[in-house]
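A reminder from the course coordinator: this example appears on the midterm review sheet, so study it carefully.

Given structure:
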């Protein structure tokens, strides 16, 4: 009977782990004396030190959804999308950029991202290539069609605003888990959603931030908000994500992002569209030579 119970337990365990991908994210199961015992991720994290808990929480959201800014999601291979960036100054002045984005996952040199401007006219074909590295600083290259030149952005210039927006080159670099230290702070609610609050502390000495207070939805592990604190520990800006949509029955992407600069009073709104996954992009689409040939 005891042997039969264990066999049944193993079968039940197999069924439990294969019910849905969402459940497998949440539950860790094992057979104890013929009984299937499952623990949620919350149970596993309950007694961990704050630093380890913070890292585990952020690693989970990265594992499920990949990095921010319209690309990512582990296992998709490559993706393409578009976004409109609307920059609003305190005096009411407004300017708009239209940008295409291509992303290649797990290439030999690291994940790669190519951003190409379509509008305004004076920025058309301006492009930026980013090659991420888990243990070293990202490589970032820009192409200026007016001068037909490709230049590398130095890591100590990563805090420079990107094309007049409130988003810096650092913000659109990779957000690899290994590039931060972590601290779980507390649980809180945001617009009715239960969230974990995790502080991320950049390891890069050239970072413009002391910490990034990151709000993670407990149910979906999607990031809802990030508060960016400058090197003096003063709140600099806030990024919020809204209108998440699911693509191909597995990829969740934010339809809208808003970056509010509390110190300048300026804001940038990003509206995303035309998401495509597994489009057949290759290394050749992300070479330095390809920058000069973008259309």
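Designed residues:
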């Amino acid at each position: 009977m005891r042997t039969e119970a264990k066999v049944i337990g193993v079968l039940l365990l197999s069924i439990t782990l294969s019910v849905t991908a969402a459940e497998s994210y949440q539950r860790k199961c094992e057979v104890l004396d013929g009984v299937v015992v499952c623990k949620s991720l919350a149970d596993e994290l309950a007694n961990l030190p704050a630093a380890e808990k913070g890292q585990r929480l952020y690693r989970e959201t990265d594992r499920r959804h990949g990095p921010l800014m319209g690309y990512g999601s582990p296992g998709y291979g490559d993706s393409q999308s578009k976004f409109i960036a609307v920059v609003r100054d305190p005096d009411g002045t407004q300017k708009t950029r239209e940008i295409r984005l291509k992303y290649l996952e797990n290439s030999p040199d690291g994940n790669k991202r190519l951003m190409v401007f379509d509008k305004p006219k004076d920025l058309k074909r301006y492009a930026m290539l980013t090659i991420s590295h888990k243990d070293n600083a990202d490589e970032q290259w820009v192409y200026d069609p007016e001068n037909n030149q490709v230049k590398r952005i130095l890591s100590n210039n990563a805090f420079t605003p990107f094309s007049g927006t409130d988003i810096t080159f650092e913000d659109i670099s990779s957000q690899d888990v290994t590039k931060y230290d972590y601290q779980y702070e507390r649980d809180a609610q945001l617009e009715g959603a239960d969230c974990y609050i995790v502080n991320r502390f950049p390891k890069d000495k050239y970072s413009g931030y002391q910490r990034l207070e990151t709000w993670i939805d407990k149910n979906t592990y999607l990031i809802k908000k990030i508060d960016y604190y400058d090197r003096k520990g003063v709140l600099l800006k806030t990024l919020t994500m809204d209108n998440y949509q699911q693509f191909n029955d597995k990829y969740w992407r934010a339809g809208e992002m808003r970056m509010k600069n509390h110190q300048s009073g300026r804001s940038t709104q990003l509206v995303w569209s035309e998401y495509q996954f597994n489009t057949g992009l290759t290394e050749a689409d992300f070479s330095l030579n390809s920058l000069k040939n973008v259309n």
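The first strand starts at residue 27 and ends at 32. The helical segments are 2-17, 21-26, 41-45, 50-65, 288-291.
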